[in-house]
Write a structure and sequence with these properties.
Blueprint (H helix, E strand, L loop, with lengths): L5 H24 L6 H18 L3 H22 L1 H30 L15 H17 L8 H9 L12 H9 L5 H33 L2 H4 L3 H33 L16 H7 L2 H15 L6 H15 L4 H19 L1 H4 L5 H20 L3 H11 L9 H9 L1 H10 L3 H13 L3 H23 L13
Helix pairs in contact: 1-2, 2-6, 3-4, 3-5, 3-6, 4-5, 8-10, 8-21, 10-16, 10-17, 10-18, 12-13, 13-14, 14-16
Length: 471
């Protein structure tokens, strides 16, 4: 089940909301108001949400929570030995279900007689495994208390808003809100608006760009690719993956806000970057901070072996995204650039015109998405040959048709890659005090339009999967 699904929007979410409100009413009837029934309801619906598409692998997630619960208790008493056990378990599960088939297939291609197991990748395993690891390490470091309630730990790991595609939420971020949170009308309004913005990003923008990138960069489209077609196709994917993933993060943060949870931001207008280092401070912030705090700094960070640490982190960052050599190459690509920037560009960045920095950064980002997109190296080479001017023709009908037919889409995408919301928030702040009713009416109209257009596009949609659920 995904958020941009009619069943989720009009069946799962309303039923959950009614049951959650009933649970809240029961919680408040006691002499000591609690979150007992609300948390139980959230756990129940989170398990239903996950089991809806993968009924078998919900048992794997439950087993993971059980192990991490007892390991966390062990860390609180015995320290490092249990941390090692927890890391081996979590990384072992991730390696088995995400990488075992890949490495067995690679060994078989080299002539080693091994059986290649057919293992279906459990949705969200990369995200909930990293959350479990961050919880264990934080307990070991003493930065967060051990959770002694199994249900509360299960709630933290299985909470459906961020379960299958993040953001990666650290336990310390929501620890207090699991047992004591407050939701007022402003939280509900902001949360619902944030959800609808994310839904619009996904359905109105990402899904349309997905059709363009698929048309130009796969099958017969790739065989007849022109130079213009390669640029149009990969820029379409550049918009697609941003609006897809940031849209999901917006929806997750919005639902969390309605429930009283405050998840950290996962994107900060990454395509406004002035360097690749700046890009990765803005893109998938929860993943970047995870690798920084739990790998890069423990390896020595900037103090010793900095270049080696950077390459190790980025190779693993690339491989985290999938069991394929192109992801490893993608990580190495960014590792090399970031390492070079530390010794060159970042020392003189204040002297370079910002427009040149933007162009430099965006060209490299687009090239990076080209590496990311193509799992097959033959197709990747074909694409980059066209991308750098080696195609048989400069333009083709498909590329010209896409640009002319979807002109409105490109303009909207460019606008919403900018910090438009920040500008609107400042504008609304100036109007809210003297004209609160007008602001409320405008926000309501915008919310209605986003929902209406998104639902209209979802009816009969054939391409609606979230990209990051497969990572």
């Amino acid at each position: 089940m995904v958020f941009s699904d009619l069943f989720f929007l009009f069946v799962f979410l309303p039923v959950f909301a009614l049951c959650y409100l009933l649970a809240a009413w029961i919680d408040r009837r006691g002499d000591m108001p609690s979150f007992r029934h609300r948390n139980s309801m959230l756990v129940l619906f989170s398990l239903i949400f996950y089991a809806w598409g993968e009924p078998v692998y919900v048992l794997l997630m439950l087993a993971s929570v059980v192990v991490n619960y007892f390991v966390g208790r062990g860390i609180a008493k015995q320290g490092k030995p249990f941390l090692v056990i927890g890391l081996i378990f979590n990384l072992g599960v991730l390696a088995t279900f995400k990488y075992l088939s890949f490495f067995c297939a690679e060994l078989l291609s080299l002539g080693v007689p091994v059986n290649v197991p057919r293992i279906v990748l459990p949705i969200g395993i990369s995200f909930y495994t990293f959350q479990s690891i961050s919880y264990l390490i934080d307990v070991y470091r003493g930065t967060t208390p051990v959770q002694r309630s199994f249900k509360n730990l299960l709630l933290y790991i299985s909470m459906f808003p961020q379960l299958i595609a993040g953001p990666i939420v650290r336990y310390g971020t929501v620890a207090s809100e699991i047992t004591d949170r407050h939701v007022d009308s402003n939280d509900l309004a902001e949360g619902m608006m944030r959800f609808l913005r994310g839904l619009g990003k996904k359905v109105i923008l990402a899904n349309q760009f997905s059709e363009i990138s698929t048309q130009l960069l796969t099958g017969s489209g790739l065989e007849n690719l022109s130079t213009m077609g390669s640029w149009v196709g990969i820029v379409a994917f550049t918009f697609q993956i941003y609006f897809d993933f940031s849209g999901y993060s917006d929806m997750a943060i919005g639902i969390g806000r309605c429930l009283g949870f405050h998840f950290n931001e996962n994107f900060d207008h990454p395509y406004c970057c002035v360097s690749i280092t700046d890009f990765w401070r803005r893109w998938h912030i929860s993943l970047g901070s995870f690798f920084r705090d739990y790998l890069y700094i423990p390896l020595g960070g900037n103090r010793r072996h900095q270049a080696l640490n950077i390459m190790v982190v980025w190779m693993l960052t690339g491989f985290w995204h999938g069991a394929s050599w192109n992801f490893l190459l993608w990580g190495v690509f960014y590792g090399v650039i970031i390492m070079l920037e530390k010794y060159t560009l970042l020392k003189v960045i204040h002297r370079v015109p910002k427009v040149l920095l933007h162009i430099y950064s965006l060209v490299l980002v687009v090239i990076g998405w080209g590496i990311f997109y193509f799992v097959d190296f033959g197709a990747m080479l074909h694409f980059f040959k066209a991308f750098f001017g080696g195609a048989a023709s400069f333009s083709d009908f498909a590329a010209v048709n896409v640009l002319s037919t979807y002109g409105w889409l490109w303009v909207i995408a460019l606008v919403f890659c900018l910090p438009v919301r920040n500008w609107l928030d400042r504008w609304v702040a100036r109007w809210k005090h003297p004209r609160p009713t007008l602001v409320l009416v405008m926000r309501s109209v915008l919310a209605f339009l986003l929902l209406t257009v998104s639902v209209a596009l979802l009816v009969g949609a054939t391409n609606n999967a979230f990209l990051y659920t497969r990572f």
